Amino acid sequence: MQVPSPLLCATHGPAGDAPARPAAAPFLPMNRAEMDALGWDRCDVIVVSGDAYVDHPSFGMAIIGRVLEAAGFRVGIIAQPNWRDAADFRVLGEPRLFFGVTGGNMDSMVNRYTADRRVRSDDAYTPGGVSGARPDRSVVVYAQRLREAFSQVPIVIGGIEASLRRIAHFDYWSERVRRSVLVDAQADLLVYGNAERQVLEIARRLDAGERIGAITDLRGTAFVRAAVPDGWIEIDSTTVDEVGALETPPNPYATPPTGARAQAAGPPDAAPALAVRRTRDVPNAARAHSVIRLPAFEAVAGDPVLYAHASRVLHSEANPGNARALVQRHGASDVWLNPPPLPLTTADMDAVYELPYARRPHPVYGAAKIPAYEMIRFSIAIQRGCFGGCTFCSITEHEGRVIQSRSEDSVIREIETIRDRVPGFTGVISDLGGPTANMYRLHCKSERIEAACRRPSCVYPAVCANLNTDHAPLIRLYRRARAVAGVKKVLIASGVRYDLAIESPEYVKELATHHTGGYLKIAPEAIGEGPLSKMMKPGIGTYYRFKELFDRYSRDAGKEQYLIPYFIAAHPGTRDEDMLELALWLKKNGFRADQVQAFLPSPMSTATAMYHSGKNPLKRITRRSESVAIPRSLKQRRLHKAFLRYHDPHNWPLLREALKRMGRADLIGNGRQHLVPAYQPQPGARAAPAGRFRTQHTGLPIVRGGRRTGGKRGAASKAR
To answer: In this predicted model, what pLDDT tens digit does every residue of 461-516 receive, in sequence order?
Structure first.
């Protein structure tokens, strides 16, 4: 029996011209004809998205739309509108409450450009996989068009693009720090995280007649205000994490004076500082009304060390149990970030994922294939969040580090729904997972400790003693799932966190025996301590311990199965020598990478702060603190990718040049001990890599998806 969800149990009643609660629509309407068929004169909320509309719980617009619908609101969808004029934004008319704007399941810049800033040739979230259906910085552009079309209607922005740009952030594509997207989009509110709770509360309060400008107390939101209100204790962030100085720097909290004060004060750099309480000693009773002031946008834009400091403080205020509000000056106004949203309960998660989704693309697309949908239509999200804390990943910044899990019964019901309703089902569930395959129901052993914890990772540098690593609930779920009538196979396609898996050999046995389809992907990412320490990833010894268990249980099951390790090139902390060591390891183990991934500095991640500042925000930031090696130049980034594809003749000239420069010319030659040959084949000729070798892994590809932000599946199930 499904437990009622507090999230969805309260619905709005008729207010103003709002009708009684409507029945669930087959699809949320995308045009006036569909609205007419539903008997609607207008929508309450209209969601504008950079993705094609797929009514499936792996797609953000569908979840938000169905959650609002379940609460009694009429929701329309404008998917991939023509952004060059405002006409497409008027197709459903003016909503009664607000527009919701999202770039889609992926950040629009990551979706459009490679790590080398080249335009991608495809878009998995567009019919036919065609690129160019969304603009760069989609959230900003869509909000601008909406202001042109309906200047007075509130705009709420969200999704992963807004979530990761909620504060001043380094933008890799323009190589500069940009303002909060809230300021650039001129939106009324920003919701970050998955945001079901925030969006519902906004709709209910607007429906009750509240002004959107008055909604300032909602967790998981950001907004612009003139100054810190009376009654708040304002804390200078440099008292939380002090920035050392080689010389006295300009006060980063200074704001320009106005009027007569401006004439008396002289130029802007002589402006007085805001009054800021410099104290760590805030009584517990006052924490709820304390706010940490980060260095202003103008300060972090001009000082990479201050940027790294602000990033460190931001990440330290990420636990919903103890996070405080943050504020950052942008020109004459403050961008205010409320603490992160509280995690959804299991009942809430069940309710969200069991809403009446059509589970397929909107009929307007006809027979056109949407690659992202084809990839996930037989997969199921069983949990959200990640406590791994990998510095290059955006999952924690978006979904949080507290794991939110569905009940076993809910997952089983979804499997039965797929079996009974989804065309083309052959009996294979392609994935039971989420951001990580094996964090289902894992949590801190103590609620008190969890609420007070400020560690960025529960598993680095080692698995925390307070972490419950019992995989028994996940094993039970796997066993129930494969016992469902009509199910032939349940595969695990989400990445397995192998440092957690070795804590439960029984889980590894279950995985190898029943849920691996020949290959299992895991992500060591690097083998050298330099890059691993900047990634917050375990050492290669942990990989070997997992491999030993996986190989043993695969043999016991009579199966020939292989691990597919993923690696990142050009990550902060990586030297040329680290990549050479990795190339030799790959050759020794017989791996030949089919695709490789270079580090892409996504907005707001810790690794991006390293890339921009050359400092390590995992430690206290000072101007004398540890410098991080940054593979920044295009040539060096290409070299690091070439080391991963040492077997590709196109890379041999670059590798030979590098090996000579590094004093390792001994690795050039035609023997088994060499990395690259001394000869270069003629164009079009087929050449074997240097030092022919035979292992069970020879020729095995490392399949690396090219879009890291949001993680597996391009963030289909976890980024909104």
So the answer is: 999 999 999 999 999 999 999 999 999 999 999 999 999 999 999 999 999 999 99
Would you call the peptide bond into 456 cis, given omega within 30 degrees of 0 as the criterion? no
Tokens of 451: 């609420």
- Residue 20's pLDDT is 54
Question: Is there a single domain that holds both residue 512 and residue 646?
Answer: yes
Q: Which pair of structure tokens corresponds to residue 656?
A: 């030979």
Number of domains in the chain: 3
pTM: predicted TM-score of the whole model, two decimal places: 0.89
Range list of H helices, 388-539: 395-399, 408-421, 447-452, 472-482, 498-501, 505-514, 529-535
Helices (H), 557-629: 576-588, 606-613
Q: Are strands 379-381 and 431-433 parallel, antiparallel or unpaired?
A: parallel
Supply the angle between the helices 634-644 and 652-661 in degrees, to the nearest 10.
Answer: 110
DSSP string, 259-278: HHHHHHH-SGGGPPBP--B-
**Closest to 257 in 3D by CA, of 244, 267, 248:** 267
As beta bridge partners, residue 669 has none
CA distance 286 to 4: 35
**Residue 26 clears pLDDT 70, i.e. is over it:** yes
- Domain with 309, as residue range(s), is 227-331
Burial track 585-617 (b if 16+ CB lie within 10 A, e otherwise): bbbebebbbeebbbbbbbbbbbbbbbbbbbbbb
Is there a domain that residue 348 lies in?
Answer: no
